[in-house]
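Give me the fold.
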Amino acid sequence: MSSLALYRRYRPESFAEVIGQEHVTVPLMQALRNNRVNHAYLFSGPRGCGKTTSARILARCLNCEQGPTPTPCGECQSCRDLARNGPGSIDVIEIDAASHGGVDDARDLREKAFFGPASSRYKIYIIDEAHMVTSAGFNALLKVVEEPPEHLKFIFATTEPEKVIGTIRSRTHHYPFRLVPPGTLREYLGEVCGREGATVEDGVLPLVVRAGAGSVRDSMSVMDQLLAGAADQGVTYAMATSLLGYTDGSLLDSVIDAFAAGDGAAAFEVVDRVVEGGNDPRRFVADLLERLRDLVILAAVPDAGEKGLIDAPADVVERMQAQASVFGAAELSRAADLVNTGLTEMRGATSPRLQLELICARVLLPAAFDDERSFQARLDRLERGGMAAAAATEANRAPTKIRPLPRKTVVMKRSSASPAFSRSAPMNHRK
């Protein structure tokens, strides 16, 4: 098996292979079909989402013998040179602006740019980390970017397009790349694992996608690390959670069940298991917040798993649906707010365990708060299975009502000397 990193072995060689960036690749392919290619491009977006890879593909499309074409032939000398494992082309120059972004570097580039390509159709400069080019460097490039010779193309790639000076930005066609959606990334990782012949347990890929945070390169690096350390049984869920630092699902299930039952002993026992197991309390709280978010969505949208609103295996979604049905919407929302506030307070805390225990205490005691959300949470608890016990608790807090004495009927005998009172007869007043 190749010793190349996974993300290098599966780096796309055509726009059709780039995932999650159709809003960029489709217009670029159409521009190539129409032979309306600009002289300068700006590819921006988060790291690891395909900017530099797409720049190489565009160079391949431009210099293919059958090009400019949206589908490089892969057989000509230029395509072989710019292939995934190719030696590279002398006419496609990649420059890392982080170390070559000064004015002297820009002047050197400007002088060499006017020389024609050695064997290709175009001389193409791919300037990575373009935001690292100094203002003086950009100004030195301005003239050649504004009015380049026919054989010259520029592709700037950056994570911070706002730092590219406006005079350069205005001369380029700007294509913003995005983070790859979790569903698309999970499907792609599954295909890669299939090609590698690797066995991966259910629940592992969502963890990898979460760790990669929408970056294809980061997700592939995480997957590569898991595959490298896998034993004969493949990549297990326990191995992935341990290696990536995520909380095991059983701990989250236990603390959620404790919150639902109002069982403080069970909740604090989970805290002890978290700490004694060597887990980071901050990571546990972050994962707990993620679980509560899923429960809030499931409470509002019961088929959220089928709609792709929750990225989890079917058995986990089914378990979370049962958990969400036990809570009320207000109680779940309030618990998520408390955990979110607690997570913010944990940053820089000297005693993370104490902070975690306080978070659990706040979630377990909604009656200790007087806001409207707490009142709704108390109502949610009253409507659950433990309504009798909760109602008794509320009754003990209410002031004792005094039962009125039974009213006695008093019969007054009318004296013959007393005039009868009637609505028609006015009462006589003494003067």
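The longest helix spans residues 281-300.
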